[in-house]
Amino acid sequence: MSEIKKLPKREEVAVKDTWDLTKVFATDEEWEKAFEELTKLIEQSATFQGTLEKGADALVLAIHHMEVVNRKLETLYCYASMKSDEDTTNSKYQSMSSRAGSIFANAQESLAWFEPEILSIPDEVLQDFFAENEELAFYKHFIEQITGKREHILPAEQEGLLAGVAEIFSGAGETFSILNNADLQFPVVKNDEGEDVQLSHGVFGQLLESRNREVRKSAFEGMYQVYDQFQHTLASTLSFNVKGDNTQAKIRHYSSAREKALSQNHVPESVYDTLVEVVNEHLPLLHRYVALRKKAMKVEELHTYDLYTPLIEDDSLKYTYEQAKEKALLALAPLGEEYLSHVKEAFDDRWIDVVENQGKRSGAYSGGSYDMSPYILMNWHDSLDQLYTLVHEMGHSIHSYFTRNNQPFIYGDYSIFLAEIASTTNENILTEHLLATEKDPKVRAYILNHYLDGFKGTVFRQTQFAEFEHFIHTQDAAGNPLTSDMLNEYYGDLNARYYGEHLTKDAQIALEWARIPHFYYNYYVFQYSTGFAAASALSQKIVHGTEKELNQYLDYLKAGSSDYPIEVMKRAGVDMTRKDYLVEAFKVFEQRLNELEEILEEID
Ligand SMILES: [Zn+2]
């Protein structure tokens, strides 16, 4: 944390280490020209309004217009925000980026009539349209995604009323966010160097990983002391947020908030219930992991603040960027020649912005639009974790590449439900490769622990969140008030059930619900767990399976949004309405837990 490094200025970074955005717009003047063109196109949107019912040809024309607008918009927007990410202090790109945001909003507004107008056309008439015009048949899935909501759309007058009060439904979440990010004052605690540091959400995460127990403990206690003080307010914001979800579901004739949320992606509720059920069946594995951690750390009592510190130091495995590229190509080889050729392209054709420079946006992401290369932003430093990040983002980028090159624009994206599967599968393939090649027990222990911690934080923890989220929605729907006492009691018990008897029951953890922003995301977190488990099953098929199984996986990467996510995954070989893929994932977790137990026993 106290490491002082002199970062290069953006213009000092070697060209080969930067992404090549000149392929998108040769100059910023080209971007300005495109901006002008798009502004004119957006003005034309109104001429299509009210034409859809005239017939199949008119409908096709309107869809084409919408596609052109969105396609140009994405490229314009991505270029500006990526230029701005290169150096967030650059005011020219800040301004381009905010102009891109405004034109984005204008474009959406100019096309807002499209969905209601489609919904105003009776199904029989639409069926005639499909039969009439071959090109329209191609947009069938796109239109069905809109008409699928038909029974949940209200008469125009009521829709108007709802639109007028829409903001109120997000009020509680907004208040939580302002309180949590701006107003709450956290105490000053000591860091590893014994210096005073102001506790914040980011600093809290870092201090919990400290090897100094006192540092972890005081961060943990300091954080929860604040949530303890505000628990009644936070129960109120959460409660009103849940009421908002439940009320909207009721108004729109859904049987529950969960049905409403999951139906956006056409995900059956059984996927959610199956996840919770199978994870619960496998909680003894998490209990064993906790017991192992307690033993390895040689502590009398294992507390919540002992769960995040690394069990094994990673200093034995460091990769420079050049070494990481080689390793990535070796590790990802089971994905086949076609896949690998695009990974090489990513390295050779400057898809990647590699090194950190002054003002650069932190972290890593994969981005780009339909008409661009799927660029990757990194802030490289030599470590194994960065190699994992590289193959993760590469997973997103090759998924985007395949999708964009095999699907028309209208189906050229993919939902969040599918996105993390491609990236996590790559991470799992890397783990397989490292475990197949590294012999040193300490190195193996580090890799195994990296995997187990990832699994714990994703499959177990996010399912725990999912269970809690469903509980609060059903309780509210049944008329039971969500008081802080009630939330604390349920969450404390839930946490104890997940981690088992080897974890000491810290009173503070019962308040964890109060600080998790995801509980305001409306049934979002379960996708992290299902995605991780699906990726685990898929990587096994890719590394140890048949060519047919590999091709099925590649088909998923090429499918985009041409079908509903559950159907796309079925074709990839994973049926997420059944429990098998979860059971497979837990088998891998168990094998790796067994090996880590053995190694730690020997090293000891
Ligand atoms: Zn990701």
Q: Can you walk me through this structure?
A:
The protein has 604 residues and is mostly helical. Among the domains are: 19-164, Oligopeptidase f, N-terminal domain (Butyryl-CoA Dehydrogenase, subunit A, domain 3, Up-down Bundle), CATH 1.20.140; 270-317 and 384-604, Neurolysin, domain 3 (Orthogonal Bundle), CATH 1.10.1370.20. The chain has helices at 28-48, 56-86, 91-110, 114-119, 123-132, 134-137, 140-147, 156-169, 171-183, 201-208, 213-229, 231-251, 257-263, 269-281, 283-297, 321-331, 337-348, 384-406, 416-437, 441-477, 484-499, 526-544, 547-559, 565-572, 580-603; strands at residues 188-190, 196-198, 352-353, 365-366, 376-377. The strands form 2 sheets. It has a 3-stranded mixed beta sheet with strand order 3-5-4. Strand 1 and strand 2 form a beta hairpin. Helix 1 (28-48) runs antiparallel to helix 2, helix 9 (171-183) packs antiparallel against helix 12 (231-251) and helix 15 (283-297) packs parallel to helix 25. The radius of gyration is 25 Å and the shape is globular. 36% of the residues are buried. The model has no long low-confidence stretch (mean pLDDT 94). Residues 392, 396, 420, 423 line the site of zinc ion (ZN).
